[in-house]
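User: My collaborator sent over this chain with a note saying "see what the structure looks like." That's all I know about it. Can you take a look?
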Amino acid sequence: MVALKQKRLQGLANMSHIIIALGGNIGDVRASFDSAYKALSQSCHIITKSKLYPTPALVAKGAPSQPDYINAAIHVASTLTPTELLAELHRIEALHGRERKEHWGSRTLDLDLIDYEGCISHDSALMLPHPALVDRLFVLQPLHDIMPNWIHPVTSRSVQEMLRSLQQAGESLYEGEIW
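Assistant: Without extra context I'll predict from the sequence alone. Here is the result:
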């Protein structure tokens, strides 16, 4: 049993560690999360998942209101490249009826690549780490659940520091629920 566990851990050491944020506000979001989790487990080793956090929707100025979101994050390990993983995330979103019509629009499932092994990319097709994560409590709190010691590879700020800054500015989330 110990040898099997060591072999599994060695396999994880040869994989890239990745943070993916999940969100959705249309349909049965929890069922979509469960289904996405299963789909991701086909190409990634899922290490841990955060609680689920209900979150008011971000809407553009003048846009109609939207239902609240549910947000979460997962820590995975994979041999997929960042580009391959992004394509896989888009494929899973499409399977769940995700349509990319409008920025900040309602969605059945949103899978965002937040961090890929600390890589930094300024490519418009794949920016890493996710450029808006520092301003989004609904990303930082689930990230803190799964990787409380994570350090932003560009700013060198810890997730704890970024989370505390937003909380001190008056932002808050509802209590998370076990997923």
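A starting point for your reply to your collaborator: Residues 8-168 form a domain with the Alpha-Beta Plaits fold (CATH 3.30.70.560).
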